[in-house]
Amino acid sequence: MISSLVAASPEETAAAGEALAARLGAGDVVALTGELGAGKTCFVQGLARGLGVVRAATSPTFVLVNEYRGRLPVHHVDLYRTETLTELLDLGLEDLLGGEGVTLVEWADHCEPLLPARSVRVHIEGVGDEPRRITITEPGRR
After folding, report:
1. Cβ atoms within 10 A of the Cβ of 133, count?
2. pTM for the whole thing?
3. Cβ atoms 102, 74 nearer than 8 A
4. For residue 125, how far is the Cα from the chain centroid?
């Protein structure tokens, strides 16, 4: 299933993430792509809120993975600063993908060969003050 929407504000971008969270369960992976500044972290903040995380999700650009507790464990991965698949394997990314929680991966194009086929794909277009076009591709549910 592919859906597309336009978000005119950061709040609408986060709300789109929150709506997607209602359809996620243990083992799901959300692979986010888009330019720097497109709103991937904003979308993730809504996703985390929708998954019952009470503290604000922050971008793990320098630590690479933040973990949160909600109705399920939430693993927020930011691969912006990564360069090789070996680096991702050393980080244990494969152990997070498809585990007991939900894994949210920003800059998912950096780990494409590692992503499960059933990953939910979110692509965000637009930067600056532009509205965001958010395209969500959800494979058949398990």
Report:
1. 15
2. 0.90
3. yes
4. 15
Amino acid of residue 91: L
Beta-bridge partner residues of 112: none
Q: Shortest CA distance to 39 belongs to which of 108, 134, 135?
A: 134
pLDDT at residue 120 tops 60: yes
Strand segments (E) across 43-130: 65-69, 73-78, 102-106, 120-125
pLDDT tens-digit series, residues 96-115: 787 789 999 999 999 999 99
Res. 75: pLDDT tops 50: yes
| 30 token code pair | 């959300």
* Torsional sign, CA 68, 126, 124, 113: negative
Closest CA to 13 of 55, 47, 60: 47
Handedness of CA 108, 58, 62, 64 (dihedral sign): negative
